[in-house]
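Q: Could you fold this chain for me?
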Amino acid sequence: MSKEANTQMEHISPSDLRSIPYRVAYLKKFLNFTDADGAAIQASAAILGPLLPALLDAVYSKLLAFDITAKAFAPPQPGLNDGAKAASVQELTLNHPQIAHRRDFLKQYLLKLVRIDESGWADTAPLWTYLDNVGVMHTGEAAGFAHRARRPQLRVEYAHLGVLLGYVEDAVVGAVMGAEAPGVAERVEMVRAWNKLLWIQNDLFARHYVVDRDSKYAPRGSTALAQAADANYPESARTAQQATKLLGPFVGGFFAVVLYLAYTKAAGS
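A: Sure. Below is the predicted structure, expressed as structure tokens.
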């Protein structure tokens, strides 16, 4: 067995991954995300820009196709009159005022990804903090965000955020690769760059939902999750725990009897 040391291995500190610049630097290195990828994303604006209205329609049509994703849009938003409020998720359509209101947020989000300021794609660029904040705002713990001060709590589970990113990526790939220009090689670079960027966004969602044992990081959504949990859950958990305590000795005793019978049979033969 070789005793050669891997001198090229870079140390990543789990606790330092709580820092956005440090975390982004790690993610970019792992995914090989470079400034060239950033340039490819910006160049894709020429293709995606004219398709943005259709993309927004497609995204919200998908979100309204399932009650579990549509329910996030049901709470009334400030500034809308009573007649514009949905009594149920079934009333929500693409033309509903509450959906039109939310479409603007997604539009600004997508434009933010292709309109990068002078800070570019540096690890300390404001873009990454913005993408991280998008994750925080969906956890139900949005304290400190002025635009959400008067709005109802927004809690969207990670499963729905992750699958939505997958849907957006598929739409981007289809739009870019379906374009007639630029050349195939350039379009491939565009979709590869978008793939890397959306996986970074995926991590900046997941970090607020998933427990990271290495860094001892408690997800931002943990308090909201506890508040939103089924009131019967603690009792159910205790019942299951008690059942386990009773079942453990029973199973242990059962196997002890089996072993004893096997032993006595072997001794008598």
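A (continued): Residues 229-251 have pLDDT under 50 and may be disordered.
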